[in-house]
Amino acid sequence: MKNSKISSIWLPTRDEGLRRLETFLPYAGREYARLRNFDDGPGRHAHVSTLSPWIRHRLLPESEVVSAVLKRHRFQAAEKFIQEVFWRTYWKGWLELRPGVWQRYQSDLEQIMDRLERDDDFQDRLSRAISGGTGISCFDEWANELTGTGYLHNHSRMWFASIWIFWLGLPWQLGADFFLRHLLDGDPASNTLSWRWVAGLQTRGKAYLARPDNISRFTRGRFRPNDVALVKAPPISGPPDPTPRQIDARTDWNRTRRTALLLTEDDLSPGFLGLPVNGFEGFATLNSLHGQSPLGVSNMVAAFVNGAFSDTWGRIRSVAGRPIGHDLQTSSVDNLVDWARRTQIEQLVTPYSPVGPAQGALDILERKLAPLGIDLVRVLRPSDAMAWPRATHGFFRFRQQIPSLIKQHNKDIGR
Ligand SMILES: Cc1cc2nc3c(=O)[nH]c(=O)nc-3n(C[C@H](O)[C@H](O)[C@H](O)COP(=O)(O)OP(=O)(O)OC[C@H]3O[C@@H](n4cnc5c(N)ncnc54)[C@H](O)[C@@H]3O)c2cc1C
């Protein structure tokens, strides 16, 4: 194991993300392509970057990660790693074009949770699955790794989801919710659409089958599952996908009005907005993580996100070089509306939040600010503005555009 310097402590700071990126860079080329599918177990994820919690909250934006990799490797050598980073971009774009898929997931989940309350056997099966008590050794270990560390290797996420759906017969929505509560990188787009992909809803008619020999090979024999006799994964059926909508967002904002900066957990690198922070009358953060699951996220996830917000406050203060006039940290839209009224600002500028809880909170905020004459300006990064509308079909078509999308990355200036 070469990349053994990767720490298993998840510090929610941009500096830690940068340190991990630096440590991983030598392995992001052909070695990643060759070894990335091997999962050597908790604390031994040496063949992958483990950067997803930092990228998810954009303590490290995707553009910065890709650009660092390309300074170290030629495109051809790092193509696999770059493609994986672009999976995140693709999923975000795909869901942004079809927000109804997220809304449907949420309403399905609500109905399933109602059913759960009335069905003891269902409850029992679920509680064994999430507490590592099914008796399927690999599955139980992954459940424990997820709840114990907040991370799971991609291949194990795929095997876990496949066993959850096709062997344990549990609804994929409950599995997606379990992940969103415990993953430090829990992300509405990547998570919902990956679960749909395993279930056979995303690539219609094609589900993912976790094969025991594959598990054994890529865990280097740590598991030889003879307790899972999965031989087929009949794809789940569902309603047709909504037609892609237009993305309606700004890529710039009016710098002459009294403005406050607002950040959510979706993008904690606001430099692309064109700081200096001195130009802002105030600075606020809105934490919408409670909307990620009806059951709330784990303490570990909450601590990571709170820490990431604090780290960002520190960075903003040091860029400003002085305390900012008015500031607020909240998870309540109403508090934010009161604060905006008191500070007499004319507009709140925020990086665009993709489909998910923060976007839902911003929709409510916008409606509440309008009668006060305060605008909410959601600014889309130039790289997202270019990439997301292209997620109309499958990833195969999208990935052919990666070289031209990378050229757009240099417009995401500033951190
Ligand atoms: C059922 C299931 C649920 C998932 N849920 C989430 C989730 O909630 N949040 C999340 O960030 N990822 C999710 N993924 C995608 C993927 O598993 C993780 O992004 C990846 O394992 C993160 O580990 P890493 O940083 O070590 O990845 P690396 O292999 O080092 O990849 C580098 C980066 O590329 C991106 N990436 C890699 N693989 C994928 C992928 N398949 N989809 C999207 N982006 C990818 C991530 O930003 C990652 O940090 C899920 C996958 C599955 C199969």
Please describe what this structure looks like:
The chain is an alpha/beta fold and 415 residues long. It has three domains: 14-97 and 389-409, Serine Threonine Protein Phosphatase 5, Tetratricopeptide repeat; 100-218, DNA Cyclobutane Dipyrimidine Photolyase, subunit A, domain 3, CATH 1.10.579.10; 259-379, Rossmann fold (3-Layer(aba) Sandwich). The chain contains 18 helices and five strands. A five-stranded parallel beta sheet has the order 3-2-1-4-5, with helices on one face. Strand 2 (282-286), helix 13 (299-320) and strand 3 form a beta-alpha-beta unit. The longest helix has 23 residues, at 75-97. Flavin-adenine dinucleotide binds at residues 36, 48-52, 55-56, 84-85, 87-88, 91, 154, 157-158, 161, 179, 183, 185-187, 190-191, 194-195, 198.
Strand and helix map with partners:
Layout: H1 14-24, H2 30-35, H3 52-56, H4 62-72, H5 75-97, H6 100-118, H7 120-130, H8 137-149, H9 154-167, H10 172-182, H11 188-199, H12 212-218, E1 259-264, E2 282-286, H13 299-320, E3 326-330, H14 333-343, E4 347-351, H15 357-369, E5 375-379, H16 382-387, H17 395-399, H18 402-409
Parallel strand pairs: 1-2, 1-4, 2-3, 4-5
Flavin-adenine dinucleotide is lined by residues 36, 48-52, 55-56, 84-85, 87-88, 91, 154, 157-158, 161, 179, 183, 185-187, 190-191, 194-195, 198.
Brief synopsis:
The chain is of the alpha/beta class and 415 residues long.
Keywords:
DNA Cyclobutane Dipyrimidine Photolyase, subunit A, domain 3; alpha/beta; five-stranded parallel beta sheet; binds flavin-adenine dinucleotide; globular; 3 domains; 5 strands; 18 helices; 6% strand; Rossmann fold; Serine Threonine Protein Phosphatase 5, Tetratricopeptide repeat; 415 residues
